[in-house]
Design goal:
Blueprint (H helix, E strand, L loop, with lengths): L1 E4 L2 E8 L10 H7 L7 H13 L8 H7 L4 E7 L2 E10 L3 E2 L2 E2 L1 H17 L19 H14 L11 E5 L6 H16 L3 E4 L8 H12 L7 E5 L1 H4 L10 E4 L3 H11 L2 E4 L4 H14 L11 E5 L4 H14 L2 H4 L3 E4 L2 H21 L24 H5 L9 H20 L1 H10 L2 E5 L1 H16 L14 E5 L9
Parallel strand pairs: 7-8, 7-11, 8-9, 9-10, 11-12, 12-13, 14-15
Antiparallel strand pairs: 1-2, 2-4, 3-4, 5-6
Helix pairs in contact: 2-4, 5-9, 6-7, 6-13, 10-15, 11-17, 15-16
Amino acid sequence: MSHHSARFPVVDAQVSPTGRMEVLSRTEAARLSSQGQGGLKETFRNCALAVLNCGNPLDDGKELLARYPDFDIEIIQRSRGIKLDIRNAPASAFVDGQMIRGIQEHLFAVLRDVVYANGDSSGAGGAAPGRFDLGSSEGITDAVFHILRNAGIVQPVIQPSVAVCWGGHSISREEYDYTKRIGYEMGLRGLDICTGCGPGAMKGPMKGATIGHAKQRIGKPRYLGFTEPGIIAAESPNPIVNDLVILPDVEKRLEAFVRAGHGFVVFPGGVGTAEEILYVLGILLHPANAAQPFPLVFTGPRSAEDYFRRIDSFIGDTLGDEARSRYRIIIDDPAAVAREIHGGIGRVRAFRKESRDAYYFNWLLRVEHEFQQPFRPTHANMRRLKLHRDEPKHLLAADLRRAFSGVVAGNVKNEGIREIERHGPFEIHGDPEIMGPMDALLSSFVAQGRMKLPGTAYNPCYRVVPRAREEAPSA
């Protein structure tokens, strides 16, 4: 039944599960109902709304919730399984009164992951408290593995083929078309695509790959989408994704990418993309990972050359030439990118075979605790970051990633936007030699319109404050 809620058409419906989430225990159902405690119902409702909002350009979690204030979703327990009773859902999720199949699958993926990880997105309850030891590095990796396994992502017999694509959700049409050409070339070479599942550079490679896969008659291509509750509203999953996973927080989402992926392509983007780059370089700079083959390519059309030149010089200025040696920049050559990734994945396969590591999960990669601990971007935490030249390079990369993560939160996450509204912009302190390049990089993102969707004004949610170490504020 469709009707209108304010300006946006909405639909009421009851849907049955597709996929694997057909039954819930009474306890799980109670925790997801209105009477349940612990905010799980709210996490489930917000993630479900984001999934149903697919295809409507919006990068503001707060605005999405305001747009559909009457949206609600309840679980109906029946002896034969469950149904979802949905009220005031965005009409775009339906065709002639029937929910689009891909969106229906995503809805039950949300239910599966929210129940399984049964914690809040802050990571305080994390992934299933009691099930995993989230105080240790190994325990967090174990949690990531179990969430992916529960979602059917880790499959033992499959050869390495997962190309992870990172990049911005608000990119130009030219950059978007370029991501499709890359996806097409990778699809022709039989590679599967894994992205953050949203619009822009996360959607383009999947769209391109569908054509490449179709031409090669590849029967069951994989389009993996990894997201988390804080960002999903700003980046609604696109329905090409046939394996959606909602990790409990951004750190577990990033670890899922580097453990499940075999080759990595970075497209132009904004601070979220810079965060991903710093995360992966920080891990690769750890001495324990020096020997690991890890294909990493930065690419874009000719018009994005300046963007990557700035990223490259920022990395050189802050993390040095060793970090710069871990990636290749290829401009305006989709076939060359696909060949580089395809060849690199071949080297990954040989390395995993020789070292007896799994093809489906990179157990040997050393991910330090600093890269795994959930970072809450509050004003105090942002001021406390150690952005100093004498920090070990991989730890400096970890804190630079946190700084960018805070800017992402202040730009698009409901919680971060509210924090900025209450207390004003975040302050980022550090050595002038690091703050200078960082300020220049962030300013270039603003100037190139990479901080918000096209056509929306950007008010910076941060202030960069260069200061020598001895002047640093006490924690």
